[in-house]
UniProtKB/TrEMBL annotation:
<protein>
    <recommendedName>
        <fullName>DUF3108 domain-containing protein</fullName>
    </recommendedName>
</protein>
<feature type="signal peptide">
    <location>
        <begin position="1"/>
        <end position="19"/>
    </location>
</feature>
<keyword id="KW-0732">Signal</keyword>
């Protein structure tokens, strides 16, 4: 019920000068304005298990995806808006993504499969995250990471992949977009790094309108994590 409510609210809301209101029983916790004309909103809900969060990514034309993640940043459910479709993670995974492992050892591997709606093949993600350092953006302490993953179809054929550098927040237990590119092609990198962190009570919190890089023509956002 809440999942459907969130999708309808985001899809129906005009972007310019509007604010997203989380569903009843849910509380917004963070807004991140990013490069590439993107904005991310994070919220939690009282009825959900501890550590579960909802993460919405929006562009200048409206919502792009909503992701439900747990405390280890496993992609439990993802809904894409253009075109509308969803993917659900098979659990337990052979090698689940683990922020706990990443923060403890600076390296984490993962191997999991997401099952799309009818008409698409399951997608198996095999990859890694590696902590490379620390930085501060808009007063927010973040870890810097390198990552890479390969996507396989059920027959083991490679159908996609991505490499790059991104950010991770130990405080919020979230990954945040950074630079990404097709495997072996860093010259094709796009940069969606965070620029501004906005908290409840601050101007721009849960604003639907992105602020940075909106004069740049964007390529497809399908591969963004």
């Amino acid at each position: 019920m809440r999942w459907t409510t969130v999708l309808c609210m985001l899809a129906a809301a005009p972007v310019a000068s509007q604010t997203f209101v989380p569903p009843e029983g849910c509380t917004g916790t963070l807004t991140v304005q990013q490069k590439q004309c993107l904005v991310t909103h994070v919220w939690t809900c009282e009825a959900d298990p501890a550590g579960m969060q909802w993460v919405a990514l929006l562009g200048e034309n409206g919502p792009i995806q909503v992701k439900q993640v747990d405390a280890e940043f496993q992609w439990l459910t993802t809904y894409y808006f253009a075109p509308p479709r969803s993917r659900v993670m098979q659990t337990p995974a052979p090698d689940p993504e683990s922020l706990t492992e990443l923060f403890a050892s600076s390296y984490d591997t993962y191997d999991f499969t997401v099952v799309p709606q009818e008409g698409e093949v399951p997608r198996r993600y095999v990859g890694f995250d590696r902590l490379t350092g620390e930085t501060v953006i808009d007063g927010e302490p973040l870890g810097t990471t390198a990552f890479g993953f390969t996507v396989y179809d059920p027959e083991g054929e490679v159908i996609d992949g991505l490499e790059g550098r991104q950010y991770v927040s130990e405080r919020h237990r979230l990954f945040l977009l950074g630079e990404s590119w097709p495997p072996g092609k860093p010259e094709e990198a796009t940069d969606a790094s965070p620029v501004e962190f906005v908290y409840p009570g601050e101007e721009g919190f849960l604003a639907l309108e992105p602020r940075y890089g909106c004069d740049v023509v964007m390529s497809s956002l399908e591969a963004l994590r």
